[in-house]
Amino acid sequence: KAGVTQTPRYLIKTRGQQVTLSCSPISGHRSVSWYQQTPGQGLQFLFEYFSETQRNKGNFPGRFSGRQFSNSRSEMNVSTLELGDSALYLCASSLSPLAGPYNEQFFGPGTRLTVL
Amino acid sequence: QQPVQSPQAVILREGEDAVINCSSSKALYSVHWYRQKHGEAPVFLMILLKGGEQKGHEKISASFNEKKQQSSLYLTASQLSYSGTYFCGTPVDGGATNKLIFGTGTLLAVQP
Q1: Using one digit for the tens of pLDDT, what is the confidence trace for B71-96?
Q2: β-strands B18-23, A42-50: how paired?
Q3: CB-based contact (8 Å) between A36 and chain B?
Q4: Exposed, middle or buried: residue A2 (CB in 10 Å: 0-12, 13-18, 19+)?
Q5: Closest residue, chain A, to B2 (C-alpha)
Q6: Of A42, A100, A106, which is closest to B102 when you measure between CB atoms?
Q7: Which of A15, A36, B7, B89 is most buried as measured by Cβ atoms within 10 A of its Cβ?
Q8: pLDDT higher than threshold 80 for residue A100
Q9: Spatial separation of the C-alpha atoms in residues B19 and A1, rounded to whole Å
Q10: For residues A87 and A81, what is the distance between their CA atoms, to the nearest angstrom?
Q11: Is A55 an interface residue toward B (CB < 8 Å)?
């Protein structure tokens, strides 16, 4: 079974630009979560989608948004990029929207975003 | 609140044992353990549930101490492949969603 795929793997943008990142979950998985990973803050939850609905959101400004399509693929968008947005953006897919014992979250390889 | 992991880093020789702890100031519903190698995605290791149910995929064991609000990951007879950063994550809403709050990580280096 193919794993979680994320595109692009690397991005370089300048301040003020916007960016869209894509995540394709494991086949059959309908829940997609996004995380931001930085050396200073670690892994931080951005948002979670299930059946095209945002079910939870982390403590990030409104410049960060996302959506999920009917095929469970998800995108996240960051507008008006700031230097502090430089990070590894990870998405994770799982079968169920509930963090239960048989609902492992599988992470993709991430998109490394650098803002200059 | 973010779980606290200890130690922050540990260096081992192959064959040695290590214990990584994950503590929370809030009641724990479950603890999810991941390992991340440099430049790679976090890989799921194990879920520990309140009540002791454990589910994992590798020969690494863990415990859940509900009284102490703590989980411990045990790596015995460590191998070079165990090197990486270990994260614990806990659901923030009793498992009602997939939102996990992760600890700051424990860097484990296994040397030959």
Answers
A1: 999 998 899 999 999 999 988 877 67
A2: unpaired
A3: no
A4: exposed
A5: A44
A6: A42
A7: B89
A8: no
A9: 33
A10: 12
A11: yes
